[in-house]
Amino acid sequence: MQVAIDGPASAGKSTVAKITAKKLSFVYIDTGAMYRACTVIARDNKIDYGDEDAILKAIDKTGIEFKAVNGEQKVYAGNKDISLEIRTPEISANVSQVSALAGVRKKMVSLQRKMAGQTNVIMDGRDIGTTVLPNAEVKIFLVASAHSRAQRRLLDLKQRGIHSDKTVDEIEKDIANRDYKDSHRKISPLKKASDAIKIDTTNMTIDQVVDTILKKIKEKAKKL
């Protein structure tokens, strides 16, 4: 079974997708982490974030890999664990530009589809239900107010031990800017698939969101 979870930045996609996948013993694939890894590779190689050819060559040379370490999914660029680096404000500010590059998207989508074809998966991102897995049995589209997402982003950074000088209001502006970029890019823009179930998580707990998604998946499974 393929489950697609889409939505804007900090709507809670990764958190609920991880928990749901664990409860169902599905494989979790964080596509956002893949694009963030591409952005880290570009930065580490001092490549302009708009230089598609150079970024693609660097990705091919370095490689991106998910590894399970002590029961936790880690992201590697080559032999380097970049799981924390991909969440830093600098990468968050530039990932939209890198992920909008046609060649980068083509390469990542191909890799994502290959992963999804091997087992039961829960995949989250911006264009999973519309582009990557258009035939997914269950499609979820998570939304939340920009302010609540900014609060979540700041809390997440603190929990990861990543320092940020930005206020909630500044992060909210960054998120609104990211929403605009993601929704208006020419290739695979962020949008709700026509058959996706929309869930507003603004006033919901993580457990409530997970329970709602699990219910939808189980309902679908009974019909298959």
From TrEMBL:
Q: Does the keyword Membrane apply?
A: no
Gene Ontology molecular-function annotations: ATP binding; CMP kinase activity; dCMP kinase activity
GO CC term, one of those recorded: cytosol
Known EC number: 2.7.4.25
**Keyword field:** ATP-binding, Cytoplasm, Kinase, Nucleotide-binding, Transferase
Cite the Gene3D superfamilies for this sequence.
Answer: P-loop containing nucleotide triphosphate hydrolases (3.40.50.300)
Where does it live in the cell?
Answer: Cytoplasm
Q: Which CDD domains match?
A: CMPK
Q: Does the keyword Transmembrane apply?
A: no
Q: Where does ATP bind?
A: 7-15
Any one biological process term the GO annotation gives: pyrimidine nucleotide metabolic process
Where's it mainly located?
cytoplasm
Q: Which residues form the Cytidylate kinase domain?
A: 3-218
Under catalytic activity, the entry for this protein gives: dCMP + ATP = dCDP + ADP; CMP + ATP = CDP + ADP
Q: Which family does it belong to?
A: Belongs to the cytidylate kinase family. Type 1 subfamily.
UniProt protein name: Cytidylate kinase
Kindly list the organism's lineage: Bacteria, Bacillati, Bacillota, Bacilli, Lactobacillales
Q: Which gene encodes it?
A: cmk
